[in-house]
Design goal:
The protein is of the alpha+beta class. Helix content is 57%, strand content 17%. It has helices at 3-12, 18-32, 50-64, 86-94, 119-133, 157-169, 190-200, 203-220, 224-253, 261-272, 278-285, 289-306; strands spanning 33-38, 41-47, 69-72, 78-84, 98-101, 104-107, 134-137, 149-154, 175-179, 182-187. The two termini are 28 Å apart.
Length: 307
């Protein structure tokens, strides 16, 4: 299984609220879906990784009461699913992909901004876009020119522009190119890639990628001091991912307002500064590094008890 496939599989296991499921499904429609017709009926057809198809088919059935029709490959894996009929039309209208007026239905190119108003829905939207049209490339020893690369692929410029705006609102600034008939949003910096994966909720993939990067750097570098610096940098990223995951869990379970003031302020500051080191974070909060460490360990402990 490739790194991309593992990441998509991980994102499929993420538990999401209804509003987040809708945002993720909308992004999946924009990246992996295509409108199909059969007689007078209109619907959607999806291609992609079997885990993702099964995940979003369940969401479509639960949110819109449609009945997915599956196609299965010779190996027994789901290769496609289609939804047709009145329920699919209502689904397309609700997602803002079709607009209805006195003249009937028409295709809408304008994104529904309400779908990503909340931060949790932005994360879900980006996860859905990755599950439908995303990939991560890791350098190979056989291909010396290949570097780290994360991308989202869209068939329409408007959908790509919307995704770029969502990423920018989250503090990520990708590059955009046209590749044949598609529009591609991409990142080339390894730290940016890890941060985007972490933001989407792929924490295990971040840890796996960090390990890969450490191994590659250690095999390519002979300078001990440089290797030590890289290792410490990755330890900071890994610790940040664990802390932010704990903060997200507390926020979704009981709310940050349920925490004592010192922990609440620490949680919000860490969430607002996801890549800051402990020294930088301690300086922002105006506390010692040992005090900050104690607070962060307490937040992780609280999250562990909520699982």
């Amino acid at each position: 299984m490739t790194f991309t496939e593992k990441t998509k599989k991980e994102l499929c296991r993420e538990k999401r609220k209804n509003c987040c499921e809708k945002a993720a499904f909308y992004a999946f429609v924009r990246t992996a879906g295509s409108i199909v017709t059969s007689g007078n009926e209109i619907g959607l057809s999806f291609d992609g990784q079997s885990d993702c198809l099964e995940y979003f088919a369940a969401i479509a059935e639960r949110l819109y009461l449609v009945k997915p029709i599956f196609s299965v490959s010779q190996k027994g894996a789901i290769s496609n699913f289609t939804v047709m009929g009145g329920g699919s039309v209502a689904m397309l209208v609700d997602l803002g992909i079709l607009a209805e007026d006195e003249n009937g239905l028409k295709l809408s190119l304008d994104p529904d901004l309400k779908l990503t108003e909340k931060d949790c829905c932005k994360r879900a939207y980006l996860a859905g876009a990755f599950m439908g049209g995303g990939s991560v490339t890791i350098p190979s020893d056989k291909k010396k020119s290949t570097g780290y690369h994360l991308e989202f692929v869209f068939s329409m410029y408007g959908a790509a522009e919307y995704a770029e705006d969502v990423l920018a609102s989250c503090g990520f600034f990708p590059k955009v190119i046209k590749r044949k008939e598609n529009w591609v949003i991409y990142f080339k910096q390894s730290e940016e890639i890890k941060n985007v994966l972490a933001y989407m909720g792929a924490s295990k993939s971040v840890l796996d990628l960090s390990e890969i990067m450490i191994e590659r750097e250690m095999s390519n570098q002979t300078n001990r001091e440089t290797n030590c610096f890289l290792h410490n940098t990755d330890k900071t990223v890994i610790a940040s991912v664990k802390q932010r995951s704990a903060i997200d869990l507390i926020s979704e379970s009981v709310g940050l307002d349920a925490l004592p003031e010192d922990l609440r302020v620490t949680a919000k500051t860490r969430a607002e500064n996801p890549t800051a080191s402990l020294n930088e974070l301690a300086e922002i909060l105006g506390v010692s590094k040992s005090c900050l460490n104690h607070r962060l360990r307490k937040l992780v402990s609280i999250a562990d008890n909520l699982k």
